[in-house]
Structures
1.
Amino acid sequence: MSQPDAGEINPETLGIQALAMNQRTHVSMKLGTRVGEDGMLLRRRALSFSYSDKEGLRRLALVVAADIPASESFTIHEGLSVMGGERRTVMWRKSDCHLPSCCDTIVQAILKQRACRLVLLTPAYFEHGFYPTWLPTHSGVTPSLHGIAIQKPMVVSGWDLEVRQPKPIRRLAPAGTVLFLKLPDRVTPDQIKAWITATWMQCMGDDEQSRRDGFGLAVLGVWDGKPQVIA
């Protein structure tokens, strides 16, 4: 997330080829007749954890981090279990590794410029579509929004099992969206460091439940705080 010099980036070496996706279409069935309900189609698109060397994919795993200390009432158990709506078999393993923290180079750049980029790793819900009304605030640091780089929205819905009807359609800011933030001049470096720690790899968005569901996972990058005109 640091700022590279011009000519240093080779796009072919960035990241992985793609996350393997699996898309399926389902239909609602009438009880007792095995006949499909007219117009009741549902398309589901999810990550596929199958692996093949020939497809140029990397073997990936799902990492879950809990900010609740282990206790008698809350314990993460290792071993086989099931996961997801199709109850696929998974193997859970406990790890002492920690999620990557914000590197010192980025921290020092944010302290110097008192500005940064906030990059979404997962889609985020904003009440006004592309414009957030909620920004991460911590240790007395309240950032201000000065720019957004965003593509077309991701439209999502689903089926509510409790009330047995479709969930409302929502438009999400897609992963890769960048918010350009400035930090107040009056705050101290220690306050900014605390804000960076509290914001890094945490979820943001206008709806608390969406944040709990993992929408709006974000990291920070450098920005000099100077808007640039794009020709």
Note: The mean pLDDT is 84.
2.
Amino acid sequence: MKFSLINILLLFLILEINAQTLSNRELDSLYSDFIKIKSYHTIADISQPLRPDSGTVKCGFSEVNSVIPFLSQFSTEKQKTIYKLLQRPQKQTSFVTPGGFFRVHFDTSGIEKPEYDLGLLAEALDSAYRFEINYLNYAVPVSDNGEGGDALYDVYILDLGTGQGGLYGYTQYSDQEIVPGSGRYTSYMVIDEDYLGFKSAGIQGARVTVAHEFHHAIQGSGYIFRQQDTFFHELSSTAMEEFVFDSINDYYGYMLSYFRSPENPFAQNNGYNLAIWNIFIHKNFGFEILKRQWELMPGLRALNAINLSLNELGTTFAKQLNKFGVWTYFTKFRAQPNNYFEEGEFYPLIDIGAVINFSPPSREVNLNVKSTSNNFITLKDQSTGDTLIAIITNGDYISGIDSINKSFPLEYILFTDPNSGERKLTSHYSSDFNVNNNRFLWSASELLNGILVREDSAQIPLPEKVLEYAFPNPFYYMRGLSDINLPVATSNSGTAIFNIYTIAMELVFTGEGRIINNNGKAVVLWDGFDDKKNKLPSGVYIYVTKADDEITKGKIVIFNE
């Protein structure tokens, strides 16, 4: 392992400080969330939503456990209530899974009788154990000393609500640390009895839940539970669902909030929406680095553990967060499963911000951005029709821990020549970006007309067949973009005819236009309207251009907002 002096100094600067005193308001908030979930079975109206923040909470892990490190700070009356609600549920019977590690407690009759096949649940639990313990080699959760009746790990099946108002499950840590001051706890698991109305219903919901919650058990027993890093607990467990049960894909339902706001600090995400981060890390570095981060967690905050694990492999958090930003661009109709996310076609589109129109020779953009964030700047060259997207990453993980709401000034400049900027992009463009704090904590990449031309310090030559791409693609009516440039072959006549079809091959437009040279590209222009001068519905369209006898075909995506 290689570390610079500054790495070592920063490491010691952000070692975990265990002593933390919460305000009365913070304690009241933790207590309210805890009571909402744990007293669900005793309240009069059980039909009320269970989630403290409906629509954003997948499991109740944070809500039921965040009170535990601060128990001594609650009033005596509230402590008594908390201790009472931490008692284990009482069920009618139980069984041991074939693998011999889990005991499942459930009712054989009544409103909490499981509605899915318990044999399949047992298989799912044993599969989670084999994958997370035997294959990935995480630490086996410590025994609870017989609190559930024996030394096995206990799983309780309860009614946790329905659909948008319910929870998939939670892992409950004990009220006593395994070793005083360690932040490590024994635990038990609670899962829903039917998953009615959830994105993954029935046994599919149970499968992803046990993979998710068992990882929480591993985290808290073998490594640490840190209330300030619950986002990392959740992104780790949500990604584990995909690793253990790849075909279910429940995590699709939680990522939209990240794709809408990549400019938010990393740790301000709920974690469910960042499962794709660990999927990205695994794709590039394998599983071992994910376990390494948990090995570092007892002494380091999550962001520092992530960065240090990447340092050990010769890279940085800033560089990988920027690369992650590039990957998030290639989703939905832009997906390239061989190069980026394997399931990217099912992911949302990243918000690339408003289009900034400019004319040569340059355009300067000034922003104030948060630490540990990806910031998309979209510039349209009015002289050529080119669209350039810059992804600027503030990878300052130190501020991402101790100054999460602080903003940092950023200046980005795009030049319409290859030599004015320090960063050469193509034979027609270059760029600069300037910041006031440590430059090594930042990274940038650029895409030209949807093609990656620079990734951090590496310039990427344009592919030879770049002329076959229409641009701008996608085309937005509401963003004030000019005509769509459709690629054509060179022609002696100087004109080309072209047709536009729906994906079902219904003809919507026929036209003829003069071939122009747009920054070295032979194109014909189309305004995006059909034969009746109407805007087209949002969707994918096929264009066919013909110059002399040479035909060019391709696809264009149109958004009618």
Note: The longest strand covers residues 550-559.
3.
Amino acid sequence: MTIIAMNVAFYLYGGATGMVAWQNRFGLAPIYGLNEPWRWVTSGFVHVSVLHIGINMLMLYQFGRQLEGILGWKRFVTLYGVSLLGGSLAIVLLAPSNSLHVGASGAIFGLFAAYGVLLYSRKLPWQSLAATAGIWLVAGFFLPGISWEGHVGGAITGAVAMVVILAMNKAKRHS
């Protein structure tokens, strides 16, 4: 998947140029959110460690591969991007103004939620997915350094985006 390759390339380049400077330059801090809007996107491609990017890319691969197969690459990339922006919006609105946020997890929580909506709409078991996402979401409230704001914003945006996608598909079938 291209999004995984982009994340890994961004991580490797950032590590080669100085990780802390990279995070400060491209991470999202609410104080910069309106004046430096590129951070709403770039922050989703910055990771702080091998473990951080590893977990995010594993989750992206697990859910992204399935969703991309169902939606097609254009809708999948749109869903990912909208979820990333929704997570960033929540960070700008809810996080302390001087906090710095990085990582793809807001977008990935959007994929979790979208996949849950898809399973529910097809009357397929969705509870185990909800439990997994719920555990990660709750952990985000208690573990330091995890952007619960990005997770919540991404999840809400991903769920709403999937509802819209399903409604568009239904309207297309009935026209």
Note: The helical segments are 2-17, 19-26, 39-42, 50-71, 73-94, 105-121, 127-142, 148-173.
